[in-house]
Design brief:
- By secondary structure, the chain is an all-alpha fold.
- The protein contains one helix and no strands.
- The protein is rod-shaped and about 25 Å long.
- The termini are far apart.
- This is Glucose-regulated protein 94.
């Protein structure tokens, strides 16, 4: 499930961005 990995990264980027 690499999609979940990408979604997690996006969430982190949005949080720290």
């Amino acid at each position: 499930m690499r999609v979940l990995w990408v979604l997690g990264l996006c969430c982190v980027l949005l949080t720290f961005g």
